[in-house]
Design brief:
2 copies of one chain form a homodimer. Chain A has 270 residues and is an alpha/beta fold. The first copy, chain A, has 9 helices and 10 strands. The first copy, chain A, starts with a strand and ends in a 6-residue tail after the last strand.
């Protein structure tokens, strides 16, 4: 299986690329084609919009590529997502796309365009403590759809998003249909009051209120408040679900960490 | 003129209340009724939702109150805004409401409900460097509609919002009609990449694209990035306006500071 790695958000660290290539070589069941664009930098981004878009469009159109694996998150895929999804070449529909965090902008748009998108670990995760397991989990699913890589309680159809990304998707051309979806969210590096505010925003959405249930992944690196907020993240999410009539489904095994599981957006018929 | 002060978000510092009362006494043209709820605390908030809502409803319904002045921002007015606007008593329509920052959730909803809302300095601003001028500016406008308090380039109808608040308003029952509006935004304590992401979100809104123009107030206390973002806030906002076909109107004289000017949401016929 040939897996192309591109970086629609921020640049991939060379040491992460080396470590992931070593894992792929050791496995022997896949070939990683890490696009040179992954190492470009332009301010915050892995190269200018044009370069990130061109690399993504190139691998989407390549019939020899079986999967597109987003190198890492950060910020920026939303800036090129609409253009990436315009006039899709036929080869784009014959592959799967995986990533999480900022890549959720693309996952949403790809899914909406009818392509196979999946939330899951990314190459840069190899630098996390225990990150090699995250990379193996992603590859186990990409190469052989290993069910042990999946979030364990998925009731398909399912989707997963970073909470801030989901909030910023709503009302944009990337917003997917959430009707009947087992919807999972997670968050990193935000204040609890910001999470409460974002929950107000997303649970006001009529589309989101049609989800089958909302589940909460891990909320990590919570920024400290000058006063304690007064509720933890689980209570916050449960409260907004109650207010909005959305079923709160409890915990989801996703997050900005090495334990992050795979959530395919489309039920595959194989 | 009788001005009621309530705190729908976070609690007012007693020293701010004292300083603002001293200013009002010195002026002699208004009476400030600072509601005891302003000093309640409940975790992050100035009392539980029920207490903040009750105080707000009480002053809205009081025919002796000419203006409702929100004590300060922080976070939390969105949690009570819908309930505050339900079954409005007649007296609620005979007064003006002023605040900014988190109070924007209420300003939006009040305006949408046909009431007179205005962006402007708040009591807690007295603690800022030069904050007494901010308080006088707010009172000059509340008491005698002093045009020198106004943002100088307003082309009515106008509105002003904190960028994050505006983003979290979109798609909620509080979202006002922005058609033809001279729309001003400002931001505080965010990363530039977050501002770029939020601009993506708001400029995707069909409602916002009907604004007459978008102007940028001050962006203060920008959080530092590990790498320089690569564009400043003016370039970011101008770029998203260009992408979305919104007219970028340049600078607005608003912000989280003592220079913050008044922006009435409704053109008054007096």
């Amino acid at each position: 299986m040939r897996i192309a790695v591109v970086a629609p958000s921020c640049s991939l660290k060379p040491e992460a690329a080396d470590a992931v290539q070593a894992i792929a070589a050791q496995r022997g069941d896949c070939e990683l084609a890490i696009h040179p664009q992954c190492f470009q930098t332009d301010g915050h981004f892995a190269g200018p919009d044009e370069a990130r878009l061109a690399a993504l469009r190139e691998v989407m159109a390549d019939p020899a590529v079986d999967a597109v694996w987003f190198a890492r998150g950060g910020y920026g895929s939303n800036r090129i997502a609409e253009a990436a999804l315009a006039d899709l070449p036929e080869a784009a529909g014959a592959k799967v796309y995986m990533g999480y965090s900022d890549a959720g902008f693309l996952l949403a748009g790809l899914h909406k365009a009818g392509l196979a998108a999946a939330w899951g670990p990314m190459p840069q995760d190899v630098l996390r403590d225990g990150g090699d397991r995250a990379v193996h989990r992603a590859l186990d699913w990409l190469v052989r759809r290993d069910p042990s890589a999946l979030e364990p309680d998925i009731q398909a159809p399912a989707m997963a998003f970073n909470l801030t990304v989901l909030s910023n998707l709503l009302g944009t051309p990337l917003e997917p249909d959430l009707s009947g979806v087992d919807l999972m969210i997670e968050e990193v590096s935000e204040h609890l009051y910001g999470i409460d505010r974002t929950m107000f925003h997303i649970t006001s959405s009529a589309n989101l209120r049609r989800a089958a249930r909302l589940r909460l992944g891990r909320v990590s690196d919570v920024l400290s408040n000058d006063v304690e907020f007064g509720a933890d993240e689980q209570a916050i999410v449960a409260d907004w679900c109650r207010r909005s009539g959305i079923q709160f489904g409890g915990a989801a095994d996703i997050g900005h960490d090495a334990r992050n599981r795979v959530v395919p957006f489309r039920t595959e018929k194989r």
